């Protein structure tokens, strides 16, 4: 909605120049929650660094890496309405490509990330051409089948380490004085990378392309009647999700120093879907919260009992029953109401 004329002045070329007070953008609840997440992550990293607790710093880095995988799932599930049960394919593929580049070519972080991005785009395009011809549960099963096929190929390929995977991946050189073997430096790099991914997706969802994806999720046939081709948008979203998952996977061997075929298994895809549903489908920031909460729970509860999957399962069932929109999906409307009430109070003074 356009602003009132009284809130602007005339500029040197006759254009309207908005005054600072009336044109100041209002932050939405999702923006505040995103600021809270990244500020909290920085605070957590600072405390862990001060205490010299490498374990929790690396655990937080791993949660962010799997948060990138959850972001790719949310792009397909929350925005396009496609349930990917095999997104671990691209995550594991990115991890293998990155490990091979670091071990055989160069220790450059940027080269490993660039090669992984190109490889993920090509494989994502091939996978998308196969998978998005189907809809609903058939799309989910095809994506699951593709991941199973590739994971079995990797599992039986001796040149890729077979069931043992690739071990002894050297640390990646990022910039002067910073490499992936430095826990605090690599944590900040991964945090910046995931933050950039989040901002790009937020921007993309506010463009006409993002609105077309929302329209396809709501009613694909109506988009076709309006003269647009839903298939083209769905293929683009699938390739973008593959690139996000692949690049997130590329960071894994830099953190852990190894990769294994288990990264492509259904359990990784299932955990990513659970992270998205618990955090809040379609919110973009929700999957990052979900990944942080569930990765922390798995580690903390898993240190006490080997049956930690029961705790995760109970939490998942409770969220689905009591909060089907996820934790952040419920928090955003409540926070919006508080922000609106606060703005109204300021305007009435």
Name the beta content range.
under 5%
Helix-strand string: EEHHHHHHEEEHHHHEHHHH
Global outline: globular
Widest sheet, order of strands? 1-2
Mean pLDDT: 86
Q: How helical, in percent, are the residues?
A: over 70%
The strand count comes to 6
Please count the helical segments: 14
Please report the distance between the alpha carbons of the first and last residues.
24 Å
**Rg of Cα set:** 22 Å
> What composes the largest sheet?
2 strands, antiparallel
Q: Uncertain regions: pLDDT < 50 for 5+ in a row? A: 1-23
**What structural class should be given to the helix and strand makeup?**
mainly alpha
How are the elements arranged and paired?
Layout: E1 8-10, E2 16-18, H1 20-23, H2 29-50, H3 54-80, H4 88-105, H5 109-131, H6 136-155, E3 166-167, E4 173-175, E5 178-179, H7 183-205, H8 208-218, H9 220-225, H10 230-256, E6 258-259, H11 266-279, H12 285-302, H13 308-322, H14 326-348
Antiparallel strand pairs: 1-2, 3-6, 4-5
Helix pairs in contact: 2-3, 2-7, 3-7, 3-10, 3-11, 3-12, 4-5, 4-6, 4-10, 5-10, 7-10, 8-10, 11-12, 11-14, 12-13, 12-14
């Amino acid at each position: 909605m356009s602003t009132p004329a009284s809130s602007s002045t005339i500029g040197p070329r006759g254009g309207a120049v908005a005054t600072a007070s009336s044109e100041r953008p209002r932050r939405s609840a999702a923006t505040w929650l995103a600021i809270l997440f990244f500020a909290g992550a920085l605070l957590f990293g600072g405390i862990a660094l001060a205490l010299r607790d490498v374990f929790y710093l690396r655990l937080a880095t791993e949660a962010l890496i799997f948060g990138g995988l959850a972001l790719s799932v949310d792009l397909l599930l929350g925005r396009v309405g496609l349930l990917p049960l095999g997104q671990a394919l691209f995550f594991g593929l990115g991890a293998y490509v990155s490990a091979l580049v670091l071990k055989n070519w160069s220790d450059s972080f940027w080269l490993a990330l660039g090669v992984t991005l190109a490889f993920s785009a090509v494989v994502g395009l091939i996978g998308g051409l196969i998978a998005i011809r189907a809809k609903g549960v058939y799309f989910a099963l095809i994506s699951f089948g593709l991941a199973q096929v590739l994971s079995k190929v990797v599992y039986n390929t001796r040149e890729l380490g077979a069931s043992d995977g690739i071990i002894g991946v050297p640390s990646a050189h990022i910039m002067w004085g910073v490499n992936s073997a430095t826990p605090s430096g690599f944590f900040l790099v991964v945090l910046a990378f995931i933050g950039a991914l989040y901002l790009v997706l937020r921007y993309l969802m506010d463009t006409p392309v993002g609105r077309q994806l929302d329209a396809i999720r709501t009613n694909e046939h109506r988009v076709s009647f309006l003269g647009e081709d839903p298939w083209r948008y769905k293929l683009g979203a699938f390739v973008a999700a593959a690139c996000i998952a692949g690049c997130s996977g590329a960071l894994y061997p830099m953190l852990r120093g190894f990769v294994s075929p288990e990264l492509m298994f259904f359990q990784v895809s299932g955990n990513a879907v659970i992270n998205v549903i618990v955090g809040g489908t379609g919110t973009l920031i929700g999957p990052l919260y979900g990944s942080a909460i569930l990765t922390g729970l798995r580690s903390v509860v898993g240190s006490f009992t080997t049956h930690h999957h029961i705790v995760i399962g109970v939490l998942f069932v409770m969220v689905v029953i009591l909060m089907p929109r996820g934790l952040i999906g419920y928090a955003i409307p409540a926070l919006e109401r508080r922000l609106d009430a606060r703005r109204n109070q300021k305007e009435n003074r």
